Amino acid sequence: MTRPLAAQFLPHNQLQRLLDTLHHSGHKVYGPQLRDDAITYAPLATTDQLPLGIEDHHAPGSYRLQQNGTQHWFDWLSTPQGIKPLLFKPRETLWHATRDATGAIHFTDPASSAEKIAVIGLRACDLAALKLQDQHFLSVEHTPDPFYTERRRHLFIVAINCTRAAATCFCTSTGDGPKCDVNNSAADIAMTELDSGFIIMAGSAQGTHIIEQLALNDADEAQLNEATQREANAIQQQRSVPSQNMRDTLFAALDHPQWDDVASRCLSCGNCTAVCPSCFCYSEQAEPQLDGSSTEQTREWDSCFTQGHSYMHGITVRHDTKLRYRQWLTHKFAGWHDQYGRSGCTGCGRCISWCPAGIDIIDELTLLSTDKGVADDA
Q: Are 172 and 237 within 8 A, CB to CB?
């Protein structure tokens, strides 16, 4: 059995060695980069591509980046979509069918696109969401999704502990952050950025193997204290969910007048589901060639805010925004407890920042938790 490594120190000027080690181990490395005025994950070769001295600021319906004058690479807090697009593809082919000269139909699977991937920069809320995606796509109670399974098997994660909180963060109240638990998360490596480098810890045997190749020194007491102080900055958050388990509260509030209020503001655009790191809905469609010689079955991300999501036998079950928003919120914060043993929210706050109408999910949950509307109806 491999002895767990103590917390070690990785100087800033040696981060490239970590990237090189991951490359040499056969991984394609993805890391945070500045694209179109947002931080997003893209193939990463050198530390020069990282967003140096950039931090993000969030508010309802607002996301912006600014320089902060530091030499830190990870002062930002979240990317618009996290890791989800790398494992659960926004659009992909499930199978092909071709008709030969005799009229017989032959089915073939698409060529595997799985490769060894290493992602650096994921936060504790992202790792918690990844666990939820794993519960859904890797479920042994149903047939595991082969596409997700193959990509997940080849994934290596370098997580970054948060050292500040955005105005939209509430992971402390959901119990999912802001620090990565290397003993109980999907992280192979977890790091905390200091002024001079990183505290680095292994979370798996693979992570231990990578760190050992770097031949680092153990972190000293001053470095550990600095990491603790920085991590403490992220605990104080402006928002919090009313309760970690709102199952009964929300199911008892299906007729609350707040649904009408939020529906008057919601655009049914589906942005909240697109940026949510745990949402997993998709639709499937056949795409035949005009000559009838072949077809392929594809799937792509869907949202409970679209009309087609609840279309059954000529009827759209959730025919208006009120019903669609209620479906999303009650499934995320109530129905998930029955399916997965917890809510589907990990407190990242993306749905608040990227809602063009500026709807604050915490405000809605708080209002739905009161009996004001029920009393008014009585």
A: yes
Q: pLDDT (tens digit, 0 to 9) for every residue of the chain, 378 residues total?
A: 344 678 999 999 999 999 999 999 999 999 999 999 999 999 999 999 999 999 999 999 999 999 999 999 999 999 998 899 999 999 999 999 998 888 899 999 988 777 999 999 999 999 999 999 999 999 877 789 999 999 999 999 999 999 999 999 999 999 999 999 888 889 999 999 999 999 999 999 999 999 999 999 999 999 999 999 999 999 999 999 999 999 999 999 999 999 999 999 999 999 999 999 999 999 999 999 888 889 999 999 999 999 888 888 888 888 899 999 999 999 999 999 999 999 999 999 999 999 999 999 999 999 999 875 443 333
Separate counts of helices (H) and strands (E) for the chain = 15, 16
Instruction: Note if the pTM is more than 0.85.
Output: yes
Three-class secondary structure of residue 340 per DSSP = helix
Q: Quickly tell me which residue has 């082919």 as its tokens.
A: 93
Strands (E), the chain: 8-11, 28-35, 38-43, 54-59, 62-67, 91-99, 105-108, 117-122, 155-160, 189-193, 197-202, 217-218, 282-288, 294-301, 311-312, 315-316
Q: Which two tokens stand for residue 193?
A: 């950025």
State how far the Cα of 117 lies from the Cα of 155, in Å rounded to an integer.
5
Residue 326 carries which side chain, given as an amino acid letter? R
Report strand pairing: 91-99 vs 294-301. Answer: antiparallel
Report whether 40 contacts 32 (CB < 8 A): yes
Instruction: Look up residue 243 and give its amino acid.
Output: S
Query: Both tokens of residue 331?
Result: 């499934």
Helix or strand or coil: residue 57? strand
Residue 183 corresponds to which amino acid?
N
Asked if residue 119 lies in contact with residue 30, where contact means CB atoms within 8 angstroms, the answer is: yes
Angstrom distance (rounded) from CA 118 to CA 18: 11
DSSP bridge pairs for 344: none
Tell the residue number behind the tokens 């231990």, with chain if given.
208
Domain boundaries defined on the chain? 8-233, 247-377
Q: What is the 8-class DSSP label of residue 48? A: G
10 Å Cβ neighbour count for 326? 23
- Give the gyration radius of the chain's Cα atoms: 23
